[in-house]
Design brief:
The chain is α/β, with parallel strands linked by helices. Helices cover 31% and strands 21% of the residues. It folds into three domains: 150 residues, Beta Barrel (Lyase, Ornithine Decarboxylase, Chain A, domain 1), CATH 2.40.37; 263 residues, Alanine racemase (TIM Barrel, Alpha-Beta Barrel); 41 residues, no CATH class. The chain has 14 helices and 18 strands. The strands form two sheets. Strands 1, 11, 12, 13, 14, 15, 16, 17 and 18 form a nine-stranded mixed β-sheet that branches. An eight-stranded parallel β-barrel has the order 2-3-4-5-6-8-9-10, surrounded by seven helices. Strand 3, helix 5 and strand 4 form a beta-alpha-beta unit. Helix 5 runs parallel beside helix 6 and helix 6 packs across helix 7. The mean pLDDT is 96. The structure holds pyridoxal-5'-phosphate (PLP). Pyridoxal-5'-phosphate binds next to helix 13.
Length: 482
């Protein structure tokens, strides 16, 4: 849903949501299940239309809570698990084990054992894991389903450096040059059942060129495995499907404005402390994370399946030529981001070096993606009024450190907000609520509310209580009492 459509949904369900706020308080993360379903169907349809053999696996790390995983299961999605706990949640919610892909660069022995016993597929990250997995399988007398996860491809600069996960500087996966050795090792292995290869480029990959390159590399890996007699029946290209947080015009206008201010220090800053964001390398070309894409969410999948490689074959054709391996997508952001709005209230505003700064009753532990790189989300003061006059503002959080900025890029607010007014941050359905959730400064983690298609409300997570975090004055627990 666009920001506008989310606002309409908020207005349509206003009485019920306001009642929920009375009970659950603010901030509150509000999810619309209708949008999750529409996004899931769009990914599934894009696969169906261009390549019949695909699986959409929800990246649970983007929204690790039972409600979201239950909804994913009901929509017939698989699961990308990042831990034994996400895997367990998927199994408990009825996702078939052969639709669960276990990821992670530092899997515990317990995670490996449970995944093997449940029959999930393991995206094996490194040699130590491969060795332990083989030993474990021999002891348990169970064969493991193995995907080999790779890095080392020329895929840097497509998103922020800390979210780049298949290029050179990353902790994830085997280097692609190790593929021939690994394929030989798995050929005829008694305990490790080779299923195929996987990679995940990173998140918010706005430019299709990244996926086109990735697919070429991964398809070549499958082709060379096949040539040595190793048949692949899975190809997992990870997630990363982008969201258009802004319209093209708004995004290009922001870029142009930032470039002008970096070139002319006399102009007022549009980023906090004049952060260059995508212009950090000093060139006129934006590099890294972008907040608009020509082919957002499922449209990227359609684009890729139709993409033609230099040998004249489409991606779908190359897959068919390989015997139709199951193509696995692991969307987190592309599935969830546009489903949610985080509601909070305005705490006040002040002038900092001539800039208008609004303080919000939430911190980056409730919307923490700025901790990775300066991030941008649409925002509004609600309800809108006919006499609204736009104003540029930086958005500050409530935590006790200066870096706690909800937006380090200036946002255009519809009006100067007053203390106590309702404030909305849009497109927060992926990562925002959980990735850096903490009790920093003693704030309790807020609740998550889901609005069903029929208007019924589901509490996905209750807000934390004071005693859950601090116990009561009489509490004291000795180790011997555990
Ligand atoms: C292996 C893997 N798959 C999928 C995802 C989901 O990425 P996104 O939310 O960008 O779709 C991630 C995110 O970190 C990941 O690590």
């Amino acid at each position: 849903m666009t920001t506008q459509q989310l606002e309409t949904q908020l207005a349509n369900h206003r009485p019920a949501i306001e009642q929920a706020i009375e009970q659950l308080g603010l901030p509150l993360h509000v999810f619309f299940l209708e949008e999750m379903e529409a996004n899931a169907r769009a990914f599934q349809s894009a696969l169906c239309a261009h390549y019949s053999h695909g699986l959409v696996a929800f990246a649970a790390k983007s929204n690790p809570c039972r409600g979201a995983v239950r909804a994913a299961s009901q929509l017939g999605l698989g699961l990308d698990a990042a831990s034994e706990h996400e895997m367990r949640l998927g199994l408990e919610e009825g996702i078939p084990s052969d639709h669960i892909i276990c990821n992670g660069n530092a899997k515990s022995t317990d995670y490996l054992r449970r995944a093997v016993q449940a029959g999930c597929t393991l995206a094996v990250d490194n040699q130590d894991e491969l060795i332990e997995l083989a030993q474990l399988c021999e002891r348990l007398e169970v064969r493991a389903n193995v995907l080999l996860r790779f890095r080392g491809m020329p895929l840097a600069g497509l998103t922020s450096a800390d979210q780049t996960t298949a290029a050179d500087w990353t902790k994830f996966g085997f280097h692609i040059d190790e593929a021939p050795r690994l394929h030989r090792e798995l050929l005829g292995h008694p305990w490790l059942r080779y299923r195929g290869v996987s990679a995940h480029i990173g998140t918010q990959i706005a430019n299709p060129i990244g996926y086109e390159r990735l697919l070429d590399y991964l398809l070549r890996l499958l082709e060379s495995a096949q040539a040595m007699g190793l048949q692949s029946d899975l190809l997992d290209i990870g997630g990363g499907f982008p969201v258009a947080f802004f319209s093209r015009d708004a995004w290009e206008a922001f870029q142009a404005r930032l470039r002008r201010t970096l070139e002319d220090p006399q102009l007022p800053s549009v980023t906090w402390n004049d952060h260059p964001m995508g212009y950090a390398d000093g060139t006129a070309e934006w590099s890294g994370k972008a907040y608009w894409s020509d082919v957002p969410q499922a449209q990227m999948v359609e684009h890729l399946l139709k993409h033609t490689f230099p040998d004249g074959r489409s991606c779908a054709q190359r897959l068919r030529d390989l015997g139709e391996p199951l193509l696995i997508l692991e969307p987190g952001r592309g599935l969830m981001a546009t489903t949610a709005v985080t509601l909070t209230r305005v705490a006040g505003h002040k002038d900092v070096l001539g800039h208008f700064v609004v303080s919000l009753d939430m911190g980056i532990n409730n919307h923490g993606t700025n901790l990775i790189s300066p991030d941008m989300f649409p925002t509004a003061v609600l309800p809108r009024r006919s006499d609204d006059r736009p104003i540029d503002a930086f958005l500050a959080g409530r935590l006790c450190f200066s870096g706690d900025m909800i937006s380090k890029a200036k946002v255009q607010l519809n009006r100067i907000p007053r203390r106590g007014e309702r404030f909305a941050v849009f497109h927060t359905g992926a990562y925002s609520a959980d990735h850096f959730a903490s009790n920093s400064c003693g704030f309790l983690r807020p609740g998550k509310l889901a609005v069903r298609k029929n208007g019924e409300l589901e509490v996905w997570r209750e807000p934390e209580s004071f005693s859950q975090i601090y116990g009561s004055p009489e509490d004291s627990l000795l180790m011997s009492e555990l």
